[in-house]
From TrEMBL:
One of its GO terms (cellular component) is cytosol. Residues 235-333 form the HTH araC/xylS-type domain. Keywords: DNA-binding, Transcription, Transcription regulation. It holds the Pfam family Arabinose_bd. Gene3D superfamilies: Homeodomain-like. This is AraC-type DNA-binding protein. It comes from Pseudomonas indica. PANTHER family: HTH-TYPE TRANSCRIPTIONAL REGULATOR GADX, HTH-TYPE TRANSCRIPTIONAL REGULATOR VQSM. One of its GO terms (molecular function) is transcription cis-regulatory region binding. PROSITE patterns: HTH_ARAC_FAMILY_2 (PS01124).
Amino acid sequence: MSQPLYRRVVPETYVQLLYEYLEAHGHEPESVLGQPWPTPAQEGIGGVDVECWDRLLVTAAQALDDPLLGLHVGQTISARHIGVLGSVLLACGNLGTALQRLERYIRLVYDVIPMTRRDGDGWFELVWDVSQYQPGPLVNETGMVAIVQFCRALVRGTANPLRVDFNHSGPLDTSPYEAFFGCPVRFGQAEAVLRFSAQLLELPLKSPDPALVSLLEQHADRLLAQLPQQDEFVEQLRKAISHALHEGEPSIERISPQLRISSRTLQRRLKEAGTSFRHELNLVRHELALSYLRDPRLQIVDIAMLLGYSEHSAFTRAFKEWSGRSPHEARQLNSESC
């Protein structure tokens, strides 16, 4: 399997963290940074080059005379700074599910270097591979602080790491970092790592995002109303698929337990109904895509994620196969007809 080509960018909404931080502390961010306020792309995938992001952080740290800027800015993270993925994470049932989705869609919020999860005896780690590219220290610190801060905001309970490793050199006095993370912090390590207790995976989230849940339900209900009527079993399958899509690519193995039948029985019953799992999955995706495209709050990349695609390009290819045009073209046609 080919490896993804990392674009070395972070979202504009994430960069807005720094601008908002400066503004909150009485500074004019555009004057301090010499760059206009970052605005997300209306269509497709935008992003700010990570080296530009690093320069903005360094410039702000020098202007504020704050070597701990990454520690301070990262703590201001909120769901809106990571787009629709933030709302999807808020809608999860527990931290384990949220981290699974973060790992799957990490490139939507940090398309710089690979992040993987590593499990051990009673712990798990989030590990960043710096073998091909080394982000700047402030980029690293802001990002790791933001993850921990966001996890704490998500869960009911304490979500401190067990250990934090930075692979860049750090200050002699690590006490400000240890005070925030609540654990030992090491600099100059071989890897960039956040280690947590495995018990955290079961922590429930404080509250699902009612706006996202409502949005998904509205689109799902609209889909079900528009689809041609089938026998009750196929209708149940379509509903199960539509509810499972925002958690990733649905499979027969994932869906069949929800219908309380085996995968083999599901395939047989679909064949008897004159259809197949792949056909129904594509049908649901197509109808939901058309519904999502009518919602101006959702960018094309957000729609791809909500439909279970890990790559924006895969959704675009599939949509062209379904309709003969790109998602962007379909959205333009829809807006012109309004």
